[in-house]
Amino acid sequence: IGVSYYDFEAGQGETFDRTLVWTLDDEPVNLSAYSVRMQVRRSYSSPTVVFSLTEGDGITVDDEAGSINLFISATDTAAAHAGEYVYDIELEDSEGIVDRFLEGKFSLSPEVTR
Questions:
Q1: How far lies 109's CA from each of 13, 40, 45, in Å?
Q2: Looking at CB atoms within 10 Å, which of 8, 13, 43, 99 has the fewest?
Q3: Number of other residues whose CB lies within 10 A of the CB of residue 18
């Protein structure tokens, strides 16, 4: 698959709602053979998961469109500490082979209005 890099920015108390589309040669990749998951942590070696998304729990996949929708509620972002985090999104195929699809920084800016 090959990993790509992208940095996300969100704010405490905001709804984080982003859609990614995987394409090859300008055509969407059918994701029906994959399950998708994402974790956000303070650092690569941190044992604590700040946000964990899976299909049906924060991730919605449109197989034929090649789209992956990521959703973190305003309540969940409000409960997390502001700061710089890291994340990755992994795809697992039906044979159990896991590939990292996307990774980068996840910045959460502090909330003023509460």
A1: 10, 15, 22
A2: 43
A3: 12
Q: Of the candidates 20, 106, 15, which has an alpha carbon nearest to the alpha carbon of residue 68?
A: 20
Q: Would you state the structure tokens that stand for residue 33, as one six-digit string?
A: 């053979």
Tokens of 25: 């040669």
Non-local CB neighbours of 104 within 8 Å, separated by 6+ positions: 5, 6, 7, 8, 86, 87
How far is it, in rounded angstroms, from Cα 86 to Cα 39? Answer: 8
Mean pLDDT on 81-96 = 96
**Length of the chain, please?**
114
Pairing mode, strands 67-72 and 16-21: antiparallel
The two tokens of residue 65 are 């469109």
**How many C-beta atoms lie closer than 10 Å to residue 87's C-beta?**
20
pTM of the prediction? 0.93
| Alpha carbons 69 and 46: distance in angstroms, whole number | 25
